[in-house]
Design brief:
The chain is of the alpha/beta class. The chain has a single domain, classed as 3-Layer(aba) Sandwich (Rossmann fold). A 7-stranded mixed β-sheet has the order 7-6-5-8-9-10-11. Strand 5, helix 5 and strand 6 form a beta-alpha-beta unit. Helix 2 runs antiparallel to helix 3. The longest helix is centred in the first third of the chain and has 16 residues.
Amino acid sequence: MHDHHAVWEIITRSRLGDAAGPFRDGGNEPDFALKRDFKPVLRDIPTLGDTVGASDMATSNFSRLRNRMVDAQLAQRGIADPLVLAAMRTVPREVFVDDSLVEFAYEDGALPIAAGQTISQPYIVALMIEAAALDHDSRVLEVGTGSGYAAAVLSRIAGMVYTIERHAALAEVARRRLAQLGYENIDVRLGDGTQGWPEKSPFDAIIVAAAGPAIPLALKQQLAIGGNLVLPIGDSHGVQTLCKITRSSDMEFERADLEAVSFVPLVTGKG
């Protein structure tokens, strides 16, 4: 085990007040503050067993932590979709974090990954996926593959997941990791997520794991009628609003604001 008290200082804060409760930031400001510079490295994760061995933890312990995460961090906060809860119990988050952070895989916060990106807080992942209102026939577009964790959770619910990552190294590692874990209904693409994936559209749901000041037009155009687009909107350097955009007709969209969040910026172009 790592001496995490020498590395991390837990910051228990709630930027949203009593109504929201603590630790509800979904992206670029983890609930752990580094006491030294941390530089995640890209790596392959051939098997879950190898990762468990490297972290000196048993697979059964990860399973216990995963179930506790779902019960305490998700269900108790109002995540109720049984498909989302079941998917979050199934996908091994420890496989998607850096070796040096594996013991924090089920903590209630975001964690840094390579290329200056993050793996989002489990609650935020669950909240966004629940808002997307998926079923087993859904075709989903994800913008911002990152580690591949959210795509893995989506794949346990939806029929097909298309995910776009602008950083080539992240896209390649995520592609291999997801394939090695046997998630066959995920297609990873290197590209500009703000342009969507037009040849695979329309999508029943689109989830964007980065924040911008406005909704990219291409994503609105690629959303099926009746579909949901879930994304953070606002200043990329401050707190944003997680929004659910439902396409009610060719030209009409309805917006519902879900929660204050903090995500990495949505950037045009490939990294």
